[in-house]
Amino acid sequence: MTEMGSPGGERPLRHVREGMTVVGPDGEEVGTVAEVQMSDPGVVTPESQGASGEVGTALTDLWSRESMPEQGRERLARLGYVRIDTRGLFSRDRFAAGDEIARVVDDRVHLTLPADQLLS
Questions:
Q1: Distances, alpha carbon 67 to alpha carbons 57, 60, 102, 117, in Å
Q2: In whole angstroms, how far apart are CA 102 and each of 17, 25, 56, 87?
Q3: CATH number of the structural domain 3-41+77-117
Q4: How many angstroms from the chain centroid is the CA of residue 99?
Q5: Domain residue extents for the chain
Q6: At a CB cut-off of 8 Å and minimum separation 6, what does 94 contact?
Q7: In what order do the strands lie in the sheet with 81-85?
Q8: Dist. CA 32–CA 48, nearest whole Å
Q9: End-to-end CA distance of the chain
Q10: Residues 5/16, Cβ–Cβ less than 8 Å
Q11: Is the pTM of this model over 0.85?
Q12: Helices and strands (DSSP H and E) totals, the chain
C-alpha cells in the first residue's frame, strides 16, 4: 500500500491522476477522477476583480464551463480541485477542493466530505 499526502506531509492533490477511484470518508465510492487542476493561490477571477480586456475574456471562458459550479469557483481555482465523474443517467459531476482530499492510497482518492456535501 502506497499512501501519499498523509497529515503534516505534502498535499495529496499533487498525487491525484485522472481515472482514479474517489471514495468518501465512509469508504463508499463517489466516482472517478475526470479532471485534476492544481492550486493557484494568486488566482484572479471575474468574481474577485471584475473581468476586463483579454485576461478577463480568458478567465470568463475558463469559468463558463457548464459543469463548473458557480458558487465556489474562486475557492476551487485557488485551492485546486478534482472534478469527479459520478456516473449515472441524471448525475452531475462533483468537485472536491484540494483541501477536501484527505489522502491518496494506491489508486484511490479519499475525501474528507461525503458526496452529498461536495459542490456539483
A1: 19, 14, 24, 17
A2: 15, 9, 33, 22
A3: 3.90.50.10
A4: 9
A5: 3-41+77-117
A6: 30, 31, 83, 84, 86, 115, 118, 119, 120
A7: 3-4, 101-105, 108-111, 21-23, 29-37, 81-85, 94-97
A8: 31
A9: 31
A10: no
A11: no
A12: 3, 7
Residue 112: other Cβ atoms inside 10 A = 14
All three cell numbers of 58: 480568458
What is the rounded CA–CA span in Å between residue 107 and residue 25? Answer: 16
Amino acid at 74: E
pLDDT tens figures, 16-46: 999 999 999 999 999 999 999 998 777 655 5
Which grid cell sits at 86?
Answer: 459520478
pLDDT band at 5 (very low <50, low <70, confident <90, very high): low
Residue whose C-alpha cell reads 485534476 in the numeric block: 36
Q: What is the DSSP letter of 2?
A: -
Q: In which residue are the cell numbers 463508499 written?
A: 28
Q: How far apart are CA 23 and CA 113, in angstroms?
A: 9
